Amino acid sequence: MAVDSTLPSAVGATGSEKDAKPLLFIEEMTKNVDSDQERVLGEILTRNGETEYLKRFNLNGATDRETFKSKIPVVIYEDLQPEIQRIANGDKSPILSSHPISEFLTSSGTSAGERKLMPTIHEELDRRQLLYSLLMPVMNLYVPGLDKGKGLYFLFIKAETKTPGGLLARPVLTSYYKSEHFKNRPYDPFNVYTSPNETILCPDSIQSMYAQMLCGLIMREEVLRVGAVFASGLLKAIRFLQVNWKQFAHDIETGTLNPKVTDPSVRECMNKILKPNPELAAFVTKECSEENWERIITRVWPNTKYLDVIVTGAMAQYIPTLEYYSGGLPMACTMYASSECYFGLNLKPMCKPSEVSYTIMPNMAYFEFLPHESSAPELSRDSPPRLVDLAVLQVGKEYELIVTTYAGLCRYRVGDILKVTGFHNAAPQFRFIRRKNVLLSIDFDKTDESELQQAIENALVLLKEFNTSVVEYTSYAETKHIPGHYVIYWELLVKDAANAPTDQFLSQCCFEMEESLNVVYRQCRVADSIGPLEIRVVKNGTFEELMDYAISRGASINQYKVPRCVSFTPIMELLDSRVVSKHFSPALPHWKPERRR
Ligand code: AMP
């Protein structure tokens, strides 16, 4: 068994007393995984035992694992939707949690096209902050001197809405950045950002990005790390620089702020930072006007030691682009978290992206694992699955993550598939393998097979007018260009050649598909983090060739299914060599912050 316990010997390595306590905490937590998990479940069941939800399953005051496992069902979001809807409508009785639900966190996962609403309680902020407080002490073990400069992080808040009962519904990071925990965080020389709070908290994401980038340029010599939460966010910032560098150079040269930034608090804080600096303006102009943007990050921010961005899971597709812009700087994936619960951290943040493993912290929630075999049938209510506890997982096996949280989610399927790669002390470490059922993802969007199928069907209704049908289709997340976009390959059966669908019409089909995709996709489109959807019409017979190719590589003729998403280069090359026409969505799909229902 690969047991890794490098952290204890490294505790003294930073020489920082401040770090010793959090590092020791990690050691303690990872040594006593099983007893900590037992304690956490006991605490959750003691406090939530009298909730309407748990009473339904007759726990009768039991707080032990065996009773819990034998009586409480494993659920997905849709199972809890009636309870969640009641809470959203204003029912304040203890339905899921004995502590009042303080707000809903809007997950990027969707249900029936809408973002899922995750209930949370106020004290969860403490747990999230605790996990954040462990990140820099671990990083300091590997990268010295981070207290000598600043972090250029592109952090944003998003639109908030209110549920009919008056509870806030917003993304977890918006909730965190707006909390006192973040706004009034004590000064820590290891965690100084170039972005003032006012720029992060500006609700207009373009003004926010503008001000954050401008600060990054002004303080460029001080920047030691550059980051965003996910890789897609950092790439969006690079594109923003590409589009706006002339205006930045103008602002820096004259010491005046672009009048399009109208937010009074952003203007006030930027006016204190911005001074005429013709030399810096000339530098920005020289670097950004070059045709070649290779290594632009290290050219503009020459002291950057690493990029702080998540490039695991769906974000792995951005690694080559980030390597190009950064000249191969290390990419640190520091933590693994969700709206349901923050899970854990990477204890070796400077490792290669392909080797990233996260250690789940057993104090965050009670964790169970469903052994995952891709061929296994779906869970059925009649034969409850055997879930495995955190402390007894096996190296090399894949599991689906299931959480029971202090906020009242019980045995909830998060939808992530993880593989155990080893242990740190007694705590298993996980490689993020993939999200269940997600086919396409560019930014925060997650489109599954049935959503894509539905979008195709909606477009097909339009095609009927031309007596045309779609013989086969597949899809691809094109991320070589920023912003990335969805590509749908269509093989058409045109029954009346004289009345074949026109370019204008196929573009309309692209738009129709975008209108049918979920709210997160549409929001990302409106925010320009996803480009217009593209249909590539391929020659007749292309999908048969695809099948022949798969069979030549060992697929069984009986079981062959057209892949609904492709990414393997030879397959892409085959498809692209058969393209007869390309069509793009001509307009932005509908998106408004409020929920449709
Ligand atoms: P959300 O609920 O919108 O915050 O999304 C949470 C989901 O994002 C998780 O369940 C994962 O699927 C994904 N995610 C979060 N952190 C990571 C990470 N470090 N690596 C890969 N995927 C991640």
TrEMBL record:
One term of GO molecular function: acid-amino acid ligase activity
GO cellular component: cytoplasm
Ranges for domain GH3 middle: 358-435
Coiled coil stretches, renumbered: none
UniProt key word Ligase: yes
Keywords, in A-Z order: Ligase
Domain GH3 C-terminal, residue spans: 451-568
Annotated InterPro entries: GH3 (IPR004993), GH3_C (IPR055378), GH3_M (IPR055377)
Assigned protein family: Belongs to the IAA-amido conjugating enzyme family.
Full protein name: Indole-3-acetic acid-amido synthetase GH3.8
